């Protein structure tokens, strides 16, 4: 079994995890905006997410011959370590629920704000719990100011969303006023000011003419995006999106403390003489429970969808190859990202490993580059966005500086 033992190795794992964990949400968001049903996407994602854990277990977990104190992956599968396995599986369950919630939150509040808010909640709650579970090996005088900065980032993230939503409403209202003449042709205004007909949303700027690709940040771009995407958000309260986002953040705040308990047994639940679960064995059970929860919920969502999504079937999912490769890639990125985070956390403390929650920095980059988020927004939105990201960078730097060393 290979173990990361140095602080430098732990930081390297965290940085690589940061890139992976910040990129996979952008991949799933891209598929939703192209119209692929999230039930189909998440079923593909969860398969390769489990595959990543299996690969890690049979490589890093088997790379050397195990000892009694540090058995390898296969040896631990037959040991009497059920309490630790239970904690690992609880962590997988809450992570699965959080990931499932975020794929709907992205549609309502955007990739950038969703990742900032959920990550900040994760740090505020999860890092505090991990600090005490790890026996205070991280420097409290550095760690908790960093946690405070994350809390400020939550408030700024909510303000960015509110400001950007107001900008979008203003764009749509301006567009509807320019096309009031269309109201006499059977179109009626929707809740947000855009015009719709009995068949749903209509491109009010072009009427029945062929649709041209609109520039990101324009009202026409927002309408075209609504026509393509699988989750319709026009006319729905922003409270729904923020509610889903905060629920996801609460779930994310619990999975690293549960994993910490699985690998270090701070509550002394294992029988005397039974070795602690290795990171790789715990991650395998963690990913296994994550897989089964996602499988059960998403298959049920095929037939009983939420948020007015269309019904589908398992057969339709099997035959849906549009974007499947991207969904499978997202699962691998998330799986390897989580594995690297846990490897670094076992060496330097899970409180410091929560610094990978800097993933919104990566997600915001992808959101602006790929999806045109915040294009043509107001000056107020840009100021709030810069303030949010700046506070987030400071928070992550402070949190990384608190890294300790597990004996």
TrEMBL record:
Keyword ATP-binding recorded: yes
Alphabetic keyword roster: ATP-binding, Membrane, Nucleotide-binding, Transmembrane, Transmembrane helix, Transport
Compartments where located: Membrane
Entry's Gene Ontology molecular function annotations: allantoin:proton symporter activity; ATP binding; uracil:monoatomic cation symporter activity
Cellular component GO terms held in the UniProt record: membrane
Membrane-spanning residues: 6-29, 41-61, 81-101, 108-130, 142-162, 238-262, 282-304, 325-344, 350-371, 383-403
Signal peptide: none
Top-level lineage group: Eukaryota
Mode of membrane association: Multi-pass membrane protein
Keyword Cell membrane: no
Family matches, as InterPro entries: UPS_plant, Ureide_permease
Family: Belongs to the plant ureide permease (TC 2.A.7.19) family.
Record's protein name: Ureide permease 1-like isoform X1
Protein encoded by which gene: LOC116199789
């Amino acid at each position: 079994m290979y173990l990361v033992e140095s602080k430098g190795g732990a930081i390297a794992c965290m940085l690589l995890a940061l890139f992976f964990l910040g990129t996979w949400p952008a991949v799933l968001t891209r598929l939703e905006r192209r119209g692929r049903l999230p039930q189909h996407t998440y079923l593909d994602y969860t398969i390769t997410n489990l595959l990543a854990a299996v690969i890690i277990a049979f490589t890093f977990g088997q790379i050397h011959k195990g000892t009694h104190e540090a058995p390898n992956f296969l040896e631990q599968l037959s040991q009497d370590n059920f309490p630790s396995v239970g904690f690992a599986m609880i962590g997988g369950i809450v992570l699965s629920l959080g990931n499932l919630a975020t794929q709907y939150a992205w549609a309502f509040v955007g990739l950038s704000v969703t990742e900032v808010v959920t990550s900040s909640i994760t740090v505020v709650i999860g890092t505090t719990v991990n600090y005490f579970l790890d026996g205070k090996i991280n420097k409290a005088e550095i760690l908790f100011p960093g946690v405070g900065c994350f809390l400020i980032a939550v408030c700024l993230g909510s303000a960015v969303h509110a400001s950007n939503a107001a900008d979008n409403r203003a764009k749509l209202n301006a567009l509807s006023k320019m096309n009031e003449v269309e109201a006499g042709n059977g179109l009626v205004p929707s809740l947000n000011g855009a015009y719709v007909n009995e068949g749903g949303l209509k491109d009010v700027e072009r009427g029945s003419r062929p649709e041209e690709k609109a520039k990101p940040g324009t009202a026409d771009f927002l309408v075209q995006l609504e026509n393509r995407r699988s989750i319709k958000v026009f006319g729905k309260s922003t409270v729904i999106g923020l509610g889903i986002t905060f629920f996801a953040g609460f779930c994310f705040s619990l999975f690293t403390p549960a994993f910490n308990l699985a690998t270090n047994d701070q509550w002394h639940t294992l029988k005397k003489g039974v070795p602690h679960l290795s990171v790789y064995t715990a991650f395998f059970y963690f990913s296994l429970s994550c897989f089964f929860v996602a499988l059960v919920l998403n298959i049920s969502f095929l037939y009983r969808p939420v948020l007015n999504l269309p019904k589908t079937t398992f057969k339709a999912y099997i035959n849906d190859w549009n974007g499947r490769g991207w969904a499978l890639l997202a699962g691998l990125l998330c799986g390897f990202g989580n594995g690297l985070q846990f490897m670094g956390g076992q060496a330097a403390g899970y409180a410091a490993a929560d610094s990978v929650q800097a993933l919104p920095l990566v997600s915001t980059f992808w959101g602006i580059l790929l999806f045109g988020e915040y294009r043509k927004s107001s000056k107020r939105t840009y100021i709030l966005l810069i303030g949010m990201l700046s506070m987030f960078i400071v928070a992550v730097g402070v949190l990384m500086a608190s890294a300790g060393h597990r004996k």
